[in-house]
Each structure stands twice: as structure tokens, then as C-alpha cells.
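Lab notebook, bench 4. The sequencing result for the construct came back, and we need a structural model before the next group meeting so we can plan mutations. Quick request posted to the team channel:

Model the 3D structure of this chain.
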Amino acid sequence: MTEITEDLACDAAEYVLGLGDAASRRAFEDKMKEIPALRDEVLGWDSDFAELLSLYPTRVPPRKSLRRVEKLLFKGLPATPRHKTALSGARILAGALIAVLLLAVLIGRFVPPPPVAPPGSQPAQANVK
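Done. Here's the predicted structure in C-alpha cell form:
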């Protein structure tokens, strides 16, 4: 059995927390394939972090929080142009129209066609004087 070094234990904790870029995560996953004890270390960290999270009640952030965070992050950037929001409304309208047309076509397929007169029969003629 391979002994887990302190560096590998820290790498396992960082992996469980989702830190690092995609390349470093893939490299760590390759290490886990080579060192079975490293997989156990990851499971241990996962369990430890889950226990820590269970100590705190889940709270829903206030609705204003997202707007405040966006203001802080995107301060000085131009707001979304109005034509983009109008365009999304046009897309919704176009989608609804397509749905209605599709529904009409589907309903039309299930409506039986009008009766057809047998061949050789003559339509009735009115006597006009």
C-alpha cells in the first residue's frame, strides 16, 4: 500500500473542493488511477467536508444579493441593450407561433377527410324553370 504524502493529501482536498483548472484535475485523476490509496483519501476528504456542511443550516440568500453582486462585479460595464430584450420577446412570439402551426398540422392529420362520392355517380341536378 502506498503512503499518502502531505502534498498528495492537500491535492486530494483541493480536488474535492473543485479547485484548480481542468488540466490539473485530469492530472490528479490520472494519479488516482495509479495510486488506489489516493482514491480513499479523496473519499475521506469528501466525507469530512460533507460533515462540516451538515453543521450549518441551509439559508436562502435574499433576492437583492444577486443584483448587488452583479453591480460589484460588472461596475462600469454597459448595461444590456434594450434591443436584445426585445429580440428575446420576438423569439418567444415566433416560438409560440410555430407551436400553434405545428398543433394545427397535427390536428389536421387526425380529422377524417370528407366523404367522397363513389365513381360513376352523378351529382343531383336541380330542376330550374
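The mean pLDDT is 82.
Will bring this to the meeting.
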